User: What shape does this take?
Amino acid sequence: MALDRIGDGFALRSKGDIVSHDGTNPSAVNVGTDGQILTAQSSAASGLVWQNISSSQAQYFDHIATAAATAGVASLTISSIPSSYTDLVLYVMINTATTGSNSDGQVKFNSNTTDYKIQYFYYGSNVNSLTSLGYELDWSGVWTGSTNSRQYDNGIVNIAEIRIYDYASTTKWKQAQMISSSLVTSSSAVFFAGSGHAQWRNTAAITSITYDTSNSATHNILAGSKIMLFGIKRYGQ
Assistant: This one.
């Protein structure tokens, strides 16, 4: 026999039914429709109602796009970024080919190479030492870590996460927070990791994002590298 009652015989016979109380007796609250949320409402007999989520209440963390390298390339770009979110999060996972010259990973907005102010603190280490350095500098993009190498190095791993606030605003300079690490794959095991803040002193809405290196001629991005962009919709905005 199927169980369709609880307590002193109060009936629950429909899928999704839940039990509330009207102040005197138990009462059933039938299931809402897909996507609704259960909300307290004192004017309802049970004290509970199912309601639709308005666009101003919803929160999202959506995948927008991925740009992946299938062969050695100089840059990776995600364009046509929608303006329907409040913030962006960019994940950078890069391996580069090198010939020994110095280089740095960087992210550019709308192909712009000016107006960036970077404040960064990082730790660096190798088999012999540990160092920590702080920087404030003008740059040609949002710095994601050093890709310096020596002649015997066979590649760099550059990993970063960058959160960009109010990217669609046309009245504000853009602010970004980043954490990153870079590993030089050589016998010296050189490693850099750090965090920082970037400011793009431009009021244009961000519609495209490009990753490249400051010396792309000798630091081509290898197959398997990618950048992934996600959009965040903050609650109530």
Notes: Residues 16-51 form one domain. Residues 149-154 have pLDDT under 50 and may be disordered. The chain is about 0% helix and 50% strand. The chain has two domains: 16-51, 60-233.
